[in-house]
Amino acid sequence: MGRTRRRMRSAARQLGLPPLSTVEELCAAVAERTGRPVRLAPRRMRVGEPSGFVERLPDEDVVHYEQETSGLHQAHIVCHELAHLLCGHLPEAAPPDAETAAVELPTIDPDVLRMVLGRSHYDDAAEEEAEVLGAELLRILVLAPGAGTTSQLAPALEHRKGQHV
Known about the structure:
Blueprint: H1 2-14, H2 23-34, E1 38-43, E2 52-56, E3 61-66, H3 71-86, H4 98-102, H5 110-118, H6 124-141, H7 154-157
Parallel strand pairs: 1-3
Antiparallel strand pairs: 2-3
Helix pairs in contact: 1-6, 2-3, 3-6
């Protein structure tokens, strides 16, 4: 794991983000690096769905993440999914052909179908890379109270009587 961690730390530094960057700034840096727009899509995940996933569309990558969780957890999910993009774990999106586009499945929720068809199965090495790089990206975001993503943590660190712990 030491070699993977060093390689992923270097990949995070190569993005050139200053400490205390926002998730949006991180998405912009990833978009610049990959040459594809990245859009964030908070949503309420259904039971059994992952807490986040990337949907690769022909013209953009969409990072779906659980909206009903803390800001820190949201940032962690987004960083993990962005790491999959930076590591090249997703195949290129193929434009749907006329035959595929004509198929109708009225009993299946279109959002669930899109999620299942768009999600790749990652092997253990890819998940390890995404987890390590995601953690490195999160370190860039979460460094000091009152700035960037960390400002969302303040309520979690506040004592019931209004004192910080």
